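B., you asked whether I could sanity-check this one before it goes into the benchmark set. Here's the sequence:
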Amino acid sequence: MPTTSDASPDPDLDPAGRIDWLRDEIRRHNRAYYELDAPIIADADYDLLVRELQALEATHPDLITPDSPTRTVGGPVSTQFAPVEHRIRMMSLDNAMDEGELRAWGDRTARRLGELGLDGDVRYVCELKIDGLAMSLRYESGRLVQAATRGDGRTGEDVTANVLRIAGIPHRLGPGSPEVLEARGEVYLPLAAFEALKERTVAENAAAEAAGRKGRPVPVNPRNAGAGSLRQKDPEVTASRGLDFWCYQLGDLVGAEAPPSHSAALEWLGALGLPVNPATGVFTSLDEVYAFCAHWVEHRHDLPYEIDGVVVKVDDLAVQAALGATAKAPRWAIAYKLPPEERTTLLRDIHVSIGRTGKATPFAVLEPVFVGGSTVGLATLHNQDQVRLKDVRPGDTVVVRKAGDVIPEVVGPVLELRPDALAEWEFPTECPACGGPLVRPEGEAQHLCVNPDCPQKRWARIAHFASRGAMDIEGLGEQQVALFLELGLLDDVAGIYTLDLDRIRELRGYGETSVANLRAAIEVSKRRPLANLLFGLNVVHLGQAGAEALASALGSLEAVRTASVADLAAVEGVGPVIAESVHDFFADPANAALVDRLVAAGVNTEGPERSVLPQTLAGRSVVVTGTVPGFSREEAEAAIKARGGKSPGSVSKRTFALVVGDEPGVSKLTKAEELGVPVLGPEAFRELLDTGELPG
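And here's what the prediction gave me:
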């Protein structure tokens, strides 16, 4: 991984020298993160520095100093706002980076409780760790009088004027408010608001560029964008950003008796009108705690906001007090960090790949880095405009993001670490595969290789046709397609059905069994649905959903081939752009000849039979979340569509009902509750399918 400072530490430094370098480096990053809202490295890389320092200090306790970053909270306080002294210190949390470390914390906590004679029935509270900015809200007689950031834990920044413009934070609490109540929580930027802010920034930058002015940086992630939005000098700007707030703890309290437990405190805060996250659990065993954490590793992207972990706390406040704290963190709580989805690494180069339709896509060649659960060496850059917008250049240190199964992408450069005189990257004018021209059609974001004989396009077209989403020919993957092309065994997708299997049998790595399996897979592919064939033909703009719509509406390949642009565009879910592209594809003589060969080979050309079921859900949108007993996810959605309904992937105002099965997505449930969308269980779902009516 590249260094995060101008001068790398000497690898031969003695422990004291290494410790000094790490402390300086961590302090530099603390200032960038907490004071400037412009971090230089990803959280995961910062964590590695802190953990190395902790390990060295544990090995050399004589080198520990009171001002070490391992003994202090947060970072410097900005001078932009007036300072606020916290009456009760705001601490940070120790981290557990994996299940082993989480279990080690659980064992330590259980052991300490035993030593204190408190090893009875211990309850734990698990909360989502919101990726935002820690905030203290002070209410006096129920009225919000002060809002302050955490700062260094003892002194924060007075951001009251801005916090008063956050719609989700109540200005007054409900009945029963005490003389003084401090509520602590996290200000965050919801994902929808973050995307809207990015779009506004891009549009404003385009207008500024047209007027000869310089734009402003495009936000790279919700946390930094949220922190920057909160620290605006003009509260009206803060109000426009769509910030929100989750309350997660009771702080200072005057004029009322504190609840006996953390969970009771959360319930009370919620009753007073403060927003408390519903994805909070109370458990009586550590195994349940571990299961809760494991659940959110899998479901973090079901939420409409970003989280970076789960916070685990001992519930009983008296037990919390007995366990105490270290110099910077309570012993009664820990943050289980989810696998990092952002890291910083070196951008070695930018190359261009040519896709099945000729689309030229730039991608980053990276110094390999572990992120999002796998080692990443390549990441998408989308198109020329994105490269220019992000201003990433070979030689930059860049932030790389990989969320779950999503394709890795380069978020942006770390400008502070950019070498002097680093040249901008220029989009090539020639195809790297065939040398033909790369053309950018008017109004399009993508460049295209227009050479019909481009070898890269030919390979990508055949590999796509054989892929799982299209004809699903097992044993004919990308490597096999490349080999068969190289040997002259294959030239286009129709050639799959006339492959010389006898010659393939003679190739190294092939034998009777593998050839027999390939022959069987090719035969099975002939029975794939018409929608799979249409999708596999590599028609520009035609995706799986559009192919399914055409197959269902028109009923046969012949009907699709001979339909006019107007007839194609009239199919719901198709539209004029796709219709024009489909019509042009089949009108091309070369494509028509290719399709004729596929038909002669015996592929299925008939669409699905029209449903004879009563159209009880005609025109209605029913969303499914979780696994409904008796149905796979696909079967539940198919049952809705077979009755004339739609089954989109998200809840909106137009949603007729949300069907909830096992392990549902929290974000869909929350959205349904916000919009008043009816929520149905499995039995009610079956009744809905039969009658089209909601249960009484």
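One thing to flag: The mean pLDDT is 88. Otherwise nothing jumped out at me.
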